[in-house]
From TrEMBL:
Positions of transmembrane segments: none
Gene Ontology MF terms in the entry: DNA-binding transcription factor activity, RNA polymerase II-specific; RNA polymerase II transcription regulatory region sequence-specific DNA binding; zinc ion binding
Protein name, UniProt field: Putative zinc finger protein
Keywords noted in UniProt: Metal-binding, Repeat, Zinc, Zinc-finger
Domain of life the protein comes from: Eukaryota
Pfam families in alphabetical order: zf-C2H2_jaz (PF12171), zf-met (PF12874)
């Protein structure tokens, strides 16, 4: 950032600016148009007339800033030095609980364009997770036959080394089939999940619950060598990897790989 005061010279460092003021007597009052030959004379003037301007302090060090727009200057300083106490989005002027929450915000549709296409209908999404949700929920108009189970079968074929899929030793309905609900789930007051006994106000809500992955068998695992997380859907795996919480892959790598995983014919690689 540049600092410009009495004359037309620009400075990239406050110490250089102060040296220049000493050499040329350019000590300006912080609130009026007067300037002085020494800092002592300037300070005496500001003290007698209460012309001290408001100071904006960095939250974690002793730097203080004055400028034509001091709030912006100190915000830029903290952004450049990663010195915010919290985790702050400058564009939205929002603070987040932790670094991961800020990362997820910056990678949401608020900041990222929808550039990742569905391999079938070409609808675009912001992240690989969005593409996977779209397909696993049979929402693609050009691939209505696709589902969580169908996608898993295709991914497993391209993953013979089980880098992201869990080897299946049985073909139980829980592993690959949709769970059915009926009027028999009504307990007199609510539609009840027979697996966890949660109650729902409608059959549709119960159906969404039992087929959301909550009770599905885990069929994917994180490829990270130190991570033991397992997932019931490809979307859940992508969401985990995009968070970079275990450091297995970078967010950008997941986005580049999604087309090969859900729509390609190449074998899945470890890198």
């Amino acid at each position: 950032m540049g600092y410009k005061w009495v004359c037309s010279n620009d400075f990239w460092d406050l110490e250089d600016l102060d040296d220049h003021k000493d050499d040329h007597g350019h000590w300006n009052c912080e609130t009026c148009n007067r300037y002085f030959k020494t800092i002592q004379a300037r300070n005496q003037h500001m003290s007698s007339l209460n012309h001290w301007a408001q100071r904006y302090k960095c939250e974690t060090n002793d730097y203080q800033y004055l400028s034509e727009n001091p709030a912006v200057v100190v915000a830029q300083h903290m952004m450049m030095a990663f010195r915010f106490k919290g985790h702050f989005c400058m564009d939205c002027q929002r603070e987040f609980q932790d670094e991961n929450a800020l990362k997820m915000h910056l990678r949401s549709r608020i900041h990222l364009k929808s550039t990742i296409p569905c391999p079938f209908c070409k609808q675009t999404f912001t992240t690989a997770t969005g593409v996977a949700h779209h397909l696993e929920r049979s929402s693609c108009p050009e691939a209505k036959n696709l589902s969580r189970a169908a996608i898993h079968a295709q991914v497993a074929l391209r993953d013979p080394k089980n880098l992201i899929t869990i080897r299946q030793f049985d073909h139980s309905p829980d592993a690959n089939s949709r769970i059915s609900v009926s009027d028999r789930c009504w307990n007199g007051q609510f539609y009840e999940c027979y697996l966890c006994h949660r109650e729902f106000g409608s059959m549709q809500a119960l159906d969404q619950h039992v087929n959301s992955g909550t009770h599905h068998q885990k069929i994917y695992h994180c490829p990270g060598v130190r991570c033991i997380r397992e997932f019931a859907s490809l979307a859940a795996l992508f969401n985990h990897l995009e968070s970079e919480s275990c450091g297995a892959v970078r967010f950008e790598t997941v986005q580049r790989s999604v087309q090969n995983i859900v729509g390609g014919d190449r074998k899945i690689q470890s890198r």
